[in-house]
Amino acid sequence: MLFELSDEERMIQEMAAKFAIRELRPKAAELDRTKDRGILLTNLKKLAELGFMGLNIRAEYGGAETTAVAFSLAMTELGRGCASTTVTTSVTNMVGQVIQSVGNEEQRRRYLPPLCSGAYAAGGFGLTETTAGSDPAGMRTTARLDGDCWILTGRKIFISSGEFAGVFVVWAVTDKDAPKGKGISAFLVEPGFPGFAVGKNEPKMGQRGSPTNELILENCRVPQENLLGELHSGFRLALAELAGGRIGVGSMALGIGLGAMDYAKNYAKERVQFDQPIAQFQAIQWMLANRYTELEAARLLLLQAAHRKDQGQSFSKEASMAKLYATEAANRACYDAVQILGGYGYSQEYPVERLARDVRVTTIYEGTSEIQRLIIARELLR
């Protein structure tokens, strides 16, 4: 199949690439080292002004109304510059798509414009719990109706942007007697609702500039009209939206891997050992050849999944294949980049050290590699 980008998709790709080079890359190391929220929030506000916080949201709600392919391209280019900023951008887009997909008109009008414009710095995706990671149906957060409010009680963990998200999509059990996964609903929760609190920021190996928080719901009162979608249909909604999110994470991982290999390639051209640049040695050449080949294959898998989504076709299997392959290929690329730089690759003075830390989590969140294999096998054997 000849895959030709539209003029709009190419423009978005180029815009993202320029932003990553000019705005993200120069501050990425400082953001990683200091966790300066001012740097991150400035990045996010600028991205919102350029339309990157609502790429697939319709124009009537303030979005850019572009394609899933454009979203994938943008996340790849932004990922080259700063993973901490890109993951926030990806999750915010996912939250917006959830609201657009199943929210009613009042919910769309209330929450999508501030997400797209940057009035909300980010959106949050409140699914994971200590007992419900790879098995989200095992969640214990509950919601009961009390008059005109839902009362949510429980805790969510590993929530990106918990410190400053303007709205969260939070899942909770609404029918304890239903079969596992059947009695779960989704809610739109604002940080100012009574009983809502943000817990600690997790100390992490990588993507340190992006806060990852616990959400605490202690009899949190959520207006009845903030039920998102149909009652008890939240689990199916979560699985559907995670498939789209996997395109974002895989695309970001691709960008991280490309950023690492580009740096290593240029370094190999300049680093002289045994009286010649190390790029002249076959061992280095094969590392570059293997990793770039894998990353290009990852790009095509991601674009195929995004294209199927744009066409309204099933894409769960393709998204899992793309996420699995892209994130693992990006991990190999980053670790080979460290190897090519040798001792300098292990030094924080060079970016591949940070990129190797940033890429590691991509095989874990939005579904581990092991879960992706289960999904792929299930679809193949259906």
Structure description:
Helix content is 53%, strand content 15%. It has 382 residues and is α+β, with helices and mostly antiparallel strands. It folds into 3 domains: 7-121, Orthogonal Bundle (Butyryl-Coa Dehydrogenase, subunit A, domain 1), CATH 1.10.540; 124-231, Butyryl-CoA Dehydrogenase, subunit A, domain 2 (Beta Barrel); 235-381, Butyryl-CoA Dehydrogenase, subunit A, domain 3 (Up-down Bundle), CATH 1.20.140. Helix 2 (37-49) crosses helix 4 (83-102) and helix 6 (234-270) packs antiparallel against helix 9. The mean pLDDT is 96.
What's this model, at a glance?
By secondary structure, the chain is of the alpha+beta class.
CATH topology of the largest domain: Butyryl-CoA Dehydrogenase, subunit A, domain 3
Order of helices and strands: HHHHHEEEEEEEEHEEHHHH
CATH superfamily of the largest domain: Butyryl-CoA Dehydrogenase, subunit A, domain 3
| CATH class membership of the largest domain | Mainly Alpha
- Roughly what is the average pLDDT, rounded to an integer? 96
